[in-house]
Specification:
520 residues, alpha+beta, seven-stranded mixed β-sheet, 13 strands, 37% helix
Length: 520
């Protein structure tokens, strides 16, 4: 008969696996346990479940399973089915799915001095309180709580191994273990009088956020930057508000995508959610500012009056400080508007007298030469002299026009002034009658002059409103850029994980010191 067969018959001939391996009933069984982590399969943030693959290492001593190796061909250890021996009823307290105990019952390693080592593999799904406040630059602290379901601290005592992380650990693509502390707790439950011992293995996880930076953070930042260019679009373009609303809808879509990934909790708003809300608020403000700028841009003198302080601040003072300048020929094209002073009064008695007494001499001379005579040629001047001679009975001197052009102009100017002076000194009944068609033409000319000046004034006011709108857009642009940069940096860089040094957390595969016990 093989030595191992004889040894098994010797050990389990009268063995009872339902009895604790103690000599006296008041003695305590000391069980040492630990975890050899194989892989973190998944951390489901929405369901708040961590799935791990590991080996549950357990060690205890059963004095009934001792033998002398010399009697059994120097056989010092054997593998026995775990169902043959007593094993502690250690369960995962925070299990959320499946059985609480180890499902795969592998064989245990039995030594000749009664020491039993059992390391069954297991896949656990444990509850994990997910903190989404710093998502996607977050740190999660998940745990596995093991303890005896039946025996209290007076009958079974638990102690941890010092090496929880083995060499067979497979790195997770999303999570990195930065620390694995172990805590031993002594807890009194409301149901029972005695205290119970449990060992809790904590997994401090850092998220590898590159995927979320590429798929969420960078697009959100680019969309927010895109809002800046809204203030560069001209106000007469009808796409400013459309662009703002399109950006707002894009941010809402990103917010809906993130809401499907994180748990529906009201404890905190995730970091990326805060940034999206900030971006949505900034886009909403940009829509409001855009509407204000468009409203000012389309103002006209018929509906609004530009106030002096607005002209002083937004046209004269602010533009140099925001690197803006009106075109050099703007004032030349649109001079400062003044009330018209030239007025043509066609009299009711049929005579015509240009009323320029209230206008400056330059305007009066310009009107007299260009509107009354319509030309400064010698032929018109001779016609005017003949008309005067006919009204005075054919008496007068004939003026020679056989001089050079400059002398002729001087003679024309002096004689035109004399003619106008004589026309004003004549009685109204002796003044020459003006043709009705000429009088109507002069009336139309007066209307055109007034209308032209009024249009120039309206164009000037409209140009001022448009420039004020451009100044406001530039001011909004500067403020918006500052707010976006400061807000984005303060939100995205507020996570402590980003500023954490590489050596701040201790290596995860270490457990230093003796047993740490907490009384609860």
């Amino acid at each position: 008969m093989p030595p191992e067969h004889r040894l098994l018959e010797y050990l389990f001939n009268s063995y009872t696996r339902s009895v604790r391996p103690v000599v006296r009933d008041n003695e305590t069984v000391r069980v040492t346990m630990g975890l050899q982590l194989s892989q973190i399969i998944d951390v489901n943030e929405r369901e708040q479940v961590m799935t791990t693959s590991l080996w549950v290492k357990q060690h205890w001593v059963d004095y009934r399973l001792q033998w002398d190796p010399a009697k059994y061909a120097d056989l010092k250890r054997i593998h026995v089915p775990i169902n043959f021996v007593w094993k502690p009823d250690i369960l995962l307290y925070n299990n959320v799915e499946g059985t609480y105990d180890v499902s795969m019952l592998t064989k245990a390693l039995l030594h000749y001095n009664g020491s039993i080592f059992w390391s069954p593999p297991a896949v656990y799904k444990s509850s994990c309180d997910i903190d989404v406040e710093q998502f996607p630059f977050d740190e999660q602290n998940c745990s596995l709580k093991f303890g005896s379901w039946t025996h209290d601290s007076s009958r079974l005592d638990l102690f941890p191994f010092k090496e929880p992380l083995g060499r067979t650990y497979w790195q997770n693509a999303e999570w990195e273990i930065v620390e694995m502390p172990i805590r031993r707790h002594r807890i009194s439950y409301p149901c029972c009088d005695n205290e119970y011992i449990d060992i809790t293995f904590y997994f401090v996880l850092h998220r590898k956020s590159l995927f979320y930076i590429v798929t969420f953070v960078v697009p959100c930042v680019l969309i927010t930057i895109l809002t800046i260019f809204v203030f560069y679009l001209p106000s007469n373009c009808g796409e400013k508000v459309t662009l703002c609303i399109s950006i707002l809808l894009a941010l809402i879509v990103f917010l809906l995508l993130i809401s499907d990934m994180i748990p529906p909790t009201s404890k905190a708003v995730p970091l990326i959610g805060v940034y999206l809300l900030f971006s949505m608020g900034m886009v909403t403000v940009s829509i409001l500012l855009t509407v204000i700028g468009i409203h000012i841009f389309h103002r006209t003198p018929l509906t609004h009056t530009i106030r002096p302080w607005v002209r002083t601040i937004f046209i004269e003072i602010l533009p140099p400080y925001i690197l803006m300048k009106r075109p050099a020929d703007c004032e030349k094209d649109f001079p400062v508007y003044q009330e018209p002073q030239i007025k043509i009064d066609p009299p009711t008695n049929g005579s015509f007298i240009p009323n320029g007494m209230d206008s400056p001499p330059g305007d009066r001379n310009c009107f007299s030469r260009r509107s009354l005579l319509l030309s400064r040629s010698p032929s018109h001047y001779r016609r005017l002299q003949k008309s005067e001679e006919g009204h005075e009975g054919g008496q007068g001197n004939h003026l020679s026009v056989e001089r050079d052009h400059d002398s002729e102009e001087e003679i024309m100017d002096s004689n035109i002034d004399n003619h106008l002076r004589q026309q004003r000194q004549r009685p109204s009944q002796d003044r020459p009658r003006v043709n009705s068609r000429v009088r109507d033409g002069l009336g139309y000319m007066n209307y055109l002059v007034e209308r032209t000046k009024s249009d120039d004034h309206e164009k000037q006011v409209e140009a001022e409103f448009q420039f004020v709108s451009m100044v406001l857009d530039r001011i909004f642009l500067i403020i918006y850029i500052i707010c976006v940069i400061v807000g984005s940096l303060s939100i995205l860089l507020s996570s402590p994980v980003i500023w954490e040094h590489a050596g701040q957390h201790p290596p995860p595969a270490r457990f230093t010191g003796e047993d740490l016990e907490f009384h609860i």
